[in-house]
Each structure stands twice: as C-alpha cells, then as structure tokens.
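Researcher: Can you fold this with S-adenosylmethionine in place?
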Amino acid sequence: MMIAIQNVFRYFVVNSTNREYKKYKVNSVHGPLCPNAKGDNKMALLISNEEYKNGLDALYELIPPRVKPLVSFLENKIFPIMKEKSTFLDIGAASGDLTKIIAPCFQSTTVVDEKHIFEYIYNKHGFDYYIGDFMNYNSKKKFDMILCSHVYYHVPIDQLEAFTKKMLSILKPNGILVVALTAPRGANHHLCLSLNKDYIHSEKIINILNKLNVSAEKESSTFKISTNDFQKIYAMCKLFISVDCFANSSDKLTEKQVETISKKINDYVLSTKQDNIYVYLYEEDYLVIRNS
Ligand SMILES: C[S@@+](CC[C@H](N)C(=O)[O-])C[C@H]1O[C@@H](n2cnc3c(N)ncnc32)[C@H](O)[C@@H]1O
C-alpha cells in the first residue's frame, strides 16, 4: 500500500516537473540558459543556447524520470539511517527536479542557487531560498541533510576545499551530506578526461575530504540511455560534457578547441552504436558524509 502511494506521488511529481520544465524552457529561450551559473552565457562558445535547449529536451525525453536513481538511493539507503528529518538544504537545486521529490520528507526545505530564473519555482513550492553563490550564503540554521548534486563542476578548483568545508560547517550533529557527481570510470569518464584532464569527478572530492580528515562512503550508480535518434543522444551528450568538463572554463576555449571537442563528442556517440541503437552509459557516484 505504502509503495503504491509513493508511486502515485512520484507520478504526479514527475509530471509536474515536466510541466514546469516546459514553462522554464519557454521563459528562458532568451535568458541565461547555459549552465555556467553567472548568467552571462559564458558557455555559448562550446554550447549555444539552441544546443543547450536541445540537450535539455533530449535529457528529459530519454531519461524519464532523470532523477530516479538518486531518489531511490536516498529513499532506500539514507532516509532509514537518519535520526531526524527536520531541515533539508539543496545546494545548486536548479529547477528543483530533485528538491520537489525530497522536500515532503522534511519539515522545511531551503535551496541555494545562483540562477534567478528558478526563483518562481522555489516560491511556488514554499521553499526558503537564497539566490547567489553558496560561498556568500550566511545560513542561520543547520541542516539534517544537505544535498549537493552535480554542482562541484561549477566550483573553481581553488575553492573546492572551502566549498566543502562550508557545507560541513552547516551540517547538524548526526546530519548527512550527500554529494552526487560523475564517477571516474567507464567510457564517459575517458571521454571527459581526454577533453579536460582537470574535470571534477567524485575521486577529486574524496581526496579533498581525505585532506580534511573526513571520511565518506561511496555508492556507485550507472544509468543507461538508449535511442536510435543520433541527434538526441548527441545533444544530451554535449550538454553533459559542457557541464561536467567545461562549466568553469568554456569561456577560455578557442573556436578550434570547440570544433575538436564537438568532433570528439560526435565520434564518441557514434562509437556507442550497437545494432542501430546508441547506448550511452552514465556512471555517477553518491558520496555520503555523516557528521557523527
Ligand atoms: C548541473 S545543475 C544541478 C541541478 C540539480 N542539483 C540536479 O542534480 O539535477 C548545477 C546547478 O548548480 C548551481 N550552482 C553552481 N555553482 C553554484 C554556487 N557556487 N552557488 C550556488 N549555486 C551554484 C547552478 O546555477 C546550477 O543551477
């Protein structure tokens, strides 16, 4: 019975997420679509607004619901070990796809994101929010769970440690920090590495945590996206690569470099073809840090 209720709940959340995404898409065609959060289209060289929009379209169409693996992980492995579920903070919540599903499990939800365009979503759902760089966020409260999902790619390398320390500093005793990031394994990782050897993946964050004497448990997850539509998988792959590998540096790329990167992505997507179907495997890791 409980599972049936959860499934119905999730059905409505996923559908409302897609509706909101469509609204966001329409609203932001001329706005700062690109993932580099400053809103000044720094990534336009590598990924144009049109390509970014196509990538998001493909992402929502090919992985419904995109956030499912992480939500299942939280439901099955994290919530059962939590002592208290009072306050939840989602850092880099973007359009709140994850936040909306997780928020009902907590008494209060706060989000932080640099982008203004998502503000109406946070208002609509009654989240407390701070629009701006997390490093400038002065939190008056501490949190039982902090989620930082696919955000580290945007953090400048020289701020990674301070960003991590800051998250830990606002975790309650017995609180849990969950970090989701691309994993350093599989073909996608090798592509990322060949494009930018300094791209941020989970192992780099584990190294920072080790330096801070903080231990993390790791759960690995893989999701598989299959389609016979080259344009869609290419658009989605370009979006992933632009965010994962170049969120911080695309404004420094030359046109020649952009051409080379686009060609490598093209060749990579072609190499995933099996019996007329493109099979794209995305490996991610969930890091769990307990404040005990
Ligand atoms: C790739 S999206 C991740 C969205 C969501 N967490 C998920 O996993 O679906 C990254 C988000 O982090 C935000 N972001 C990046 N750096 C940030 C910072 N220093 N402070 C606040 N938000 C940041 C960006 O604006 C963007 O919306």
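Model: Folded with S-adenosylmethionine in place. Strands lie at 87-91, 108-113, 128-131, 143-149, 171-182, 217-227, 273-274, 277-290.
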